[in-house]
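Please think about what follows:
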Amino acid sequence: MKMTTALIKSLSILTKPIREAQLSAGNGTQTALVSALQRNLSELQEHMSGSEELEEARKLLEEVRRDITWVCSDTDDLTWSFVQECLLLLLCLARHLNHLLKAFHQNPTAPNPATPEAAPPLPPDVLSVAQQKTLGIVLQFVVTLGLCPYLAPGVGVALGLRSAFGAAVEGAIRHDVAPAGERRLLITTNVLLEVSALSSLATPVFTRHLGDIMAALCQLGYRPKRPEEDSTNSNKGLTVEERKSCKEALHNLLGKVYQPIVIKELLVLQGGPKQASSGSRGAGKALTQAPAWLRRLCGQLLSDRLMQPQGVQAVVRAILEGTGAGGDSDWRKCDAVAKILAACPQQSLSAESYYSQVCPQVLELLHFKDKLTAQQFQRVATRAALIMVQDRPEFAQRFLLFPLLSPLHHSAEGAGDDLSRDGVQEWELTRCIEDVYKICVVGNSPSEVLLKALADVLSTLFSLFCFTKQNVSHLRTSCQEILIWFLSHSEQSVALSQLKHLCGLLGEVSGVRHGFQFSPGSEGGARLTVREPISDDDDALYEKVSGEQWRVQCLVQLLGEMKDSDLPGEFFLLLLQDLTAVAAEREEVEQEVDTSSMTLLELEQHLLGRVSGHGQRLALLQVLAIMCDGLPYTQLLRKPTQVLGFIVSMLQRACVSLERGTDSPVESQTLSMGMGLVATLLSGAAELTADDYSSMGELLPHLEQISQQHPEPVIQELASDLRATIATHGAYRPKTVPKTATQHSTAQSPAQPAGHSSHSLPACTQSSRVPSRQQERSQPISQPKHTTDSGATPKVNEIQNARGIRSSDISKPSSSKAFSECLLEACDPDVPTRAVALRLLTRSVSDGDKEALQNKDKLLTLFLENLEHEDSFVYLSAIQGLAVLADTFPEQILQRLLGEYQTGATVGSPKRERSLETRLKVGEVLMRASRAMGPVCQIWAVPYPQHKCVVIHCVSRSFSLGLRHVVLARLLNAKRPSSEKAQQLLQSAGTAQ
């Protein structure tokens, strides 16, 4: 260790700083630098020759001086003499530490058994903090005086642009004396590389001076030889062997240093045409443009780094490390890196080999877990993938999209027989879905190639989505967003075709190959496993049918999420057109086929074709029914053109019926609804423009056919009038049009704004129950007291004449029959029918109908039972009915309601407990009743003060503070004071308030 200390001491003498007195004596910086170097060299000679303790160091220095051949003792350049002494001492230090390290490894020190917890001894090449500081100063002097001044213009960063001291250094160096500048550069670079062979010395060399060493090696190994260099005696250049050794040293250096740092230094060396300079004194100057040979070399080296394993990650880290997250500059950097990765470099042998190596690495960038790193890497990977798909689709399809979607391809039908019995693992499917989500949904840059690749696995993706809807899975949202993204960005014809394919209208499809199924994964995902065979044919058929129905339900739910898209409505109209075609073919008489001349195979194909046709018709009806039940009409018909298409489909079916000469209530009511909607549109329900009238021109052929072929003169006249109104753009409007619109206003047409309640049931309620259910649900449920559907009557009162048009001929049954029909319909399992019946009974009570008042007990029981119904349309109608009964018969009804609410047990036999939810609904009735009674509550409170106390007690115990305030304000509005118990309850309720 004495030798190490002596050598470090000698290095510190060489780098002793300049005294302030020398700078203040009036000398310039350049003169002061030269005098300081001269003085330090003299002090070093005195130090090495005077002390006997440095004898070993002197011997080592002389030995090193004899071994090397590049020492120039007769140079006239003081700076190079200084650099030579520094290089000699560095070589001595490196060789001495290397010798100590070998001895340390050959004879390791045995651990002390007395103190086993003691740390192991440090290797002898470990330097102290002060020694490392001295070494760093020496390396800085060596690079500044012996390396940077000899770099060609444009190679690396010039000293004058680094600091003010760099300009003084450039002036102090003499280039006209031996040795030559390129020879000096070679000597300094070789010594630094030899010193860096020791790990303890490599760290300070490469952490601060890697870029300068790389610049020197590039110049020494690759700079083209100029003719004028050979003509001078002072600059003889380098030999071929020396240039070759510099090239090898450069490639070895690039291979062993941390790759992001190497790439960053290469980017600096490559430079640019216009780069702003840094530094205080050089402000306003531009960096010298790198020469062409250096730019080409750096491009080749960068390409080599990029195509190595983990090369893409190294490039991204080199540019983005330390930039943080967020900000416009960060986004620009990510976009720039993505463009670099997506563009095949000119130095690459072939584009195919480049993309085959880079694309898998781009996908790997999507899998980082660190939040900051993952965010930046995902930006780069997503953008790079999208640029590749856009610019180089032939390579992106093979090397990017197919590996990306391979788990879905392996899960699909027809993927081959080589699929292992283990199927597809959970982590593969999870990674696939997450990567597709990042590229497609987050990247959000649709292209034809990307959409086509996704369309190939859409059925499998949809099957996975249907599976996640049956289980708790973190893949559900990602699958849903990917499907919505695809349907939203595909062409409408492609999206509609895919929708028909997914719901089985174009043939049977499961999305998963035969014999396999998706199963829950251990981490909340899904995996593809072998399906257990089902031996029972009935069970297999049930599973198949239920699976198909579940797929349709999932598809409708998916369409329900596309609230701002026209696709659900267009798909609905497409299905209606198919339904019209089915209706046209349904009644056609099948031609007699002579089966006696058929072979068994032909007969089987004939029968299978007939069965398949019936199956497709049933599938179409199923999809339409689920869509009408699961989607509101405001989403199915959200544009005027879609409403018009809906009307056209209805009139087309009516024309098909006329052509066949058949008649049925369903077809009559379809024609009634269609013509009623047209009349409503033309009567001013919505303001129509010239474009709207032009679009309604599609109705003219169908109206003309109806006016000529329909057997009823009234229908013929109405069709002709509607046709004339449309053809004249409303200039000619016969009286039959507004009259029919008024009659049809019982239904809430699609042209009305959402939320407007209808005043009576549509004429087609009985035969088209599913669409009417959507209309009923769109009406407001809770209404003010004594306000119900004014024109609503039981179904028996809705039966119109044969064509459902002339309401003047409707014959109303007796009041007794109407009341009994309402009682029966109040128990109907159909939700809209039951709810409307309850509201009609409520109106009968509020209007003072004699029969309804006489059967108040039946109505009370009926309303109480419907409170337990799960549909809000039903139980809110029952709540309204109970409130009206309590307002009409407060003595009997309120007492019964109070008992139901307070005890929770039913009155009468058999007794059973009411659920908490039902008791809360009774509380809602009590609140409405108290609000509706108003001042009447004062009169009723006099003979029944105990009931009033019970109401107060119930309210104070169970209602929310807001509801307590309302009920107490109503019930305590009496002029006479209540009982003492009531006053106590009031006080407790006020405390709670």
Notes: Residues 2-105+125-257 form one domain.
